Amino acid sequence: MSEDIKKTISELHIYEKKLLKELEANPEATPSQIAESTGMDIKSVMSAAGSLASKDIIEMHKDVQKIYSLTSDGLEYAEHGLPERRILEVLAEKKEISMKDLSKEAGIDKKEAGIALGWLRQKNWAQIDQGVLNITELGKEFADKAGVDEKVLDYLKANADGVKLFTDDLLDGFKKLTGRKNILNVKKETSHSFKILPKGEEILKIGFTIKEQATQLTHEHLKDGEWKSLEYRPYDINAEAPLVFAGKKHPLREIIDEIREIFLNMGFVEDNGEYVESAFWNFDSLFQPQDHAAREMQDTFYLKNPLTCDLPDDALVKLTAETHETGADTGSIGWQYDWSEDIARQSVLRTHTTGISTKHLFEHEPPIKMFSVGRVFRRETFDYKHLPEFHQVEGLVCGEGISYQNLLGTLKEFYKKLGFEVRFRPAYFPYTYLSTESEIYLEEKGSWIELGGAGMFRPEVLKPLGINQPALAFGMGIERLAMIRYDVEDIRMLYKSDIKWLREVPIDRGVRL
Ligand SMILES: N[C@@H](Cc1ccccc1)C(=O)O
């Protein structure tokens, strides 16, 4: 006896053994017969059969059979005749009926009369001639003889439990009835049959005992010593178990929290600002001229309600205006235009989180280490790369001796903690000098992708805020990071609530360098 077979036998469940024995004695047995003779319930029979089949001990066949019966219309026709039959009966007596009297004469409604006419002509039992319906020779012949379809109606009526198979003589009639609406009901019945495979034969030849097996050790077993003689059912540690999908954070939330943790660990404090902000904080405080392209309606969402926002205190507004117009005492000549308070008052959905940094600088004394994470809004058309609403993380460090080198170092550290290699290239922003854009390396693609802007705030930004120490600032899009982290090609996946993706996406935090 091979080791394998021995092992298989030792692992058979008592239900599997019972089923196999029963099949040996009665190869044709159906699941319900097996259930009856073994005392198992049907579910246990089926699961034991499934298990035996998965081990190639038996084979299971599934048969789906259609069962036909009459609908209530069908029954009505079986009892009182198909509508065309009703007309034929009247016709046989009167030989002709005027079309307009048809439904009245046959005692059927107009709709049925219409159906009946169609069939009368198709069966060639009657024909219409100048508004009068005449019986044909064939019609006369069938006047007291049932058609093939009518025989099937009778047959179905006599077999109210339903019919699975029609004998050859009824087949034509059955086909005719299936071509008509609302006469036949079809129910599907599934049945199973089993066949013992060679491996099963071998197992039966070797033989086994059927003994109840304990799956649990109870208090009583221990107390009365029965545990000593019990046969235990071995565990199958390879058995398949249903997958369980535990609740978890959304992947985007996960990466946001990871970013927050990184900055908190680096000693930054969090300040998240508001979605609705004045153009003053979103643009003017950042030395963005009032005719700057980014302020255009096609890029920025302006709000009707509230239409305007309050401006901060007069001194700041005045200094900001002067700086825009002439550069004031920042060493710059400004933008050389008339600055408008009304434009600064407009309320916008913030287009970036950098306005939080200027506000924070105004409200706090250096040294400052601040970060924020939040939504920003831009008038973008939805596509695989863009959303009108996405997340940014912003950072600000201000204090004595803070330099561009510190900026690069901070960003390097941040990206390293997220698991990315970063490089910097020069860039331009109206509010920073020097400015840079960071790019991270995509190993799979062998290419660099741009992730965010950064730079040293210009004096034109800092002076009006009353800051006399250097400040570094940076901002980047989080969705892009998430797309790389989770290998998503289409940004919309992050917002789609695609349950399959959400379940399967591996949320591995991780330093990859
Ligand atoms: N606000 C810029 C990023 C940036 C932040 C801070 C300094 C420089 C640039 C953006 O949205 O792309």
UniProtKB/TrEMBL annotation:
This is Phenylalanine--tRNA ligase alpha subunit. Its EC number is 6.1.1.20. One of its GO terms (cellular component) is cytoplasm. Tetramer of two alpha and two beta subunits. The gene is pheS_1. One of its GO terms (biological process) is phenylalanyl-tRNA aminoacylation. It catalyses: tRNA(Phe) + L-phenylalanine + ATP = L-phenylalanyl-tRNA(Phe) + AMP + diphosphate + H(+). One of its GO terms (molecular function) is tRNA binding. L-phenylalanine binds at residues 354, 392-394, 431, 457.
